[in-house]
Amino acid sequence: MAETFPGRNPWDLKHRPGGLVDIEFIAQTLQLVHAPVRPAVLDTNTVGALIMLKKAGALTAQDADVLLASARLQHALTQVLRIALDETPDIEQATPGLKTLLTRAAEAGSFAETQQRLCELQTATREIFNRVMGAPHPSTSSG
Hints:
This protein is mainly alpha-helical and 143 residues long. The chain contains five helices and no strands.
């Protein structure tokens, strides 16, 4: 899937490493692994599943909190982008108005803070994805 949809732009919130697809894969995989013993981890909503996985101890509190923050931020930003644009933005070309809307959605003080928070959460999410999914360390893979 990563080869078909590389998500090189941090604003490709769905396919970017550490993006929404990674979060969904983590939640779905952990539900499949843990549901036979703990059916309460099942939830059709990714955020709901992460909460249930945290409660069941299938995710550490720290990992769950990162994934929840990442999912919530990226979902909020996705909603703005879906309304404003037909494609993944070249953020350097984004209008000041769009940057303001994205900053509000991120509940950040500035657009620079929004970008920094997004980058930090995508990086942390990808690290959790690699650990949970047993992916090779980033230095040994093509990304």
